Amino acid sequence: MRLKEQLLVGAAAYCAATGLSEARLSMKLFGSGKRLRQLREGADTASRRVEDTLQWLSNHWPEGAVWPEGVTRPAPAPPPEANAQA
Length: 86
Prior knowledge:
- Helix 1 packs parallel to helix 4.
- This protein has a domain of about 60 residues.
- The termini are far apart.
- By secondary structure, it is mainly alpha-helical.
């Protein structure tokens, strides 16, 4: 599965697990409520941006929700305040 497809599958699973709309999640990830829809409809994005958004999903993944099969999950990063105390 290509990276962009992994992002879209991960985003759909996140929305299903949290009840968040695709547009709201898109706003959180990209600062635009349309970007996930645009990606699903064939638009492209830089791979670094996709990696950053997959990292966000991993960091905020709902407890108890199953990460989608076939999508490589980045290790959740500690919250910024944990880094500041280290």
